[in-house]
Amino acid sequence: MPRILGLSVALVIALWTAQARAVERAEVEQLLAEPIIGPKLALEEAQAYTEAHVPRIGEVQSVEDWQRRTDRMRQEVLDRVVFRGQAKVWRDAKTKVEWLETIEGGPGYHIRKLRYEALPGLWIPALLYEPAKLAGKVPVMLNVNGHDGNGKAAVYKQIRCIHMAKRGMLALNVEWLGMGQLKGENYVHYRMNQLDLCGTSGLAPFYLAMSRALDLLVSLEHADPARVGVAGLSGGGWQTIFISALDPRVTLSNPVAGYSSFRTRARHLSDLGDSEQTPVDLAVFADYDHLTAMLAPRPALLTYNAQDDCCFKAEHALPPLLEAARPIYRLYAREDKLRAHVNTDPGTHNFERDNREALYRMLADHFYGGSTADFDPREIESDSEVKTAEQLQVELPEDNADFHSLALGLLASVPADAGPEMDQAAALSWQVQSRRRLHDVVRAARFDVAAEKAGEQQREGVRATFWRLRVGDWTVPAVELVPDPASPAAATIVVADEGRTATAEEVQRLLALGGSVLAVDPFYFGESRIAERNFLFPLLLAAVGDRPLGLQASQLTAVARWLHSRQPGSPPRIVALGERSSLFSLVAAGLEHEAIGGVELSGSLGSLKEIVERNGSVDKTPELFCFGLLEHFDIRQLACLVAPRPARFRQPSERARNELAELKAVYSLLGNAFKPLE
Q1: How far, in Å, CA of 575 to CA of 560, rounded?
Q2: Beta strand 492-496 with 474-483: parallel, antiparallel or unpaired?
Q3: Bridge partner residues of 576 (DSSP)
Q4: 301 CA to centre of own chain
Q5: Are residues 402 and 587 in contact, defined by beta-carbon separation less than 8 angstroms?
Q6: What SS3 class is residue 127?
Q7: HSE, side-chain direction, 13 A CA sphere, residue 676
Q8: What mean pLDDT, rounded, does the chain reach?
Q9: Which of 674, 673, 676, 641 is nearest to 660 (CA)?
């Protein structure tokens, strides 16, 4: 072979070809990166959607009307939000309490250490501040804490409990999951959604920790069941409103800077809270303004801070709650029972002296008949009596349960359905029934598509069309690439965990085969990703009754139907890059058996159980924690819904090979000699 300037012709051709491919790749990358919807539209649509789907109280005709609605909402939230799955069994367990040592407190009171079971195996450490002299029935107070790493040892919380004990009350100081003694990665609130995935409410441990504490309080010999209060800051404020609205045993409530309406949160992103504050389906039955109104006619003090540097700033969080609750209190002729306090000293996120004394005034008026002789609301100086976390330590079992261990315990019983029987008629019937069940589990929707062309570009060898696809209430950006010349091959839809800009290599490969490619960014991916506090919006969508996974899959099925209508013949297939895109693509193909010709999945999970086994958290991969998905389906069952259309798993892991080993037999049964595993 001749040589040119010391290089073989073959090498020159190879270098030229590589350069040509590099240019093509660069052009593909540029086309895929072209902005279509901009950086704000995804957020604006999520905000508008949330606002439209949060229920409103509406007109209330009478006390009787409201009481019926309250009873219904309370029951629906408890049965259909809090106590789902195994949580129904936990609810029926007996409250266990173990009293430990008693330590000296200060003048006039002592501190009794204890632990109690929120649910079997999960013990909560607590402290009971008890007056030295007790006679008759006295008020009791449940003091909950929020996102403070000091937990029950937080100084402002200790001082509150000390003051109550010195004034003759029984004050229970309980630890919160993820704080103080219950710190640790397996108590991180974003891991509660592991339980959700398995079909058991991750909210239940939070609620049971509060309700068991009330069980304990009202069982005390000197407890007055007519005078039971709850108070807490931040996450403690959320606990306060939640237990107070849903448990009528609470007769006085003081949430401090702990919550706002879901509509408020959609516009004030600082208010978007953790998983427990945005539980799946809550807003299907009640918003936080409903919960506030449900306090009526019991005494309630809503405390907010004027310059809150965390969340729930008074000027935007408080007015909608008062607007909702005041008419209800007025119906009961108990306007005096509803109070609001806006703190300006220090005005930041706090439960310091000004806020505490507002609570003490509330206690004096409603638990002591307004008598300052019986309950002086001025705080007793007790800083010197504050103890260290070590002094307040409560012994806990070494194997104390947590979100992760509870979820691992559920894996043995899920999914409930093993998949199709090895009989063709039975398998086809299974597919029909399972497709309906999958539709319900992921809350799928059938969307029409209104396509708006956002631009076109012609490059050497490829024509690009940029689309804004209006899919229901959402705009999905897409780039359609058609090679020149194009072949009659079926079109391919490409999605990726990193968005369409990360698909250039795959798109280039597909274009080389001659077919057209549509690169799509469904909700929460690529250009459709929300930039600020992004993972909290999928939680918000789940709270109003949707499922992010179902939304992504529904958008994909709608796009596939639209593309198939434009290019009759073989339906488009989907190529997904990454485990998250692979999951919503597999769900989409399982749901839509006519307009999707098959799926090719790269990096797919072999089993949904891996999400729990590797201790995943919802803030990293929100759609993977679809409530109840693993209760009914695993990857194998979802793949069986695609058959006999191709469902190819590229470079599967060993786990995937083991879990999906039976797929070939299912395909053969349904008339396709196809090998799902490459």
Answers
A1: 12
A2: unpaired
A3: 495, 601
A4: 28
A5: no
A6: strand
A7: 33
A8: 94
A9: 676
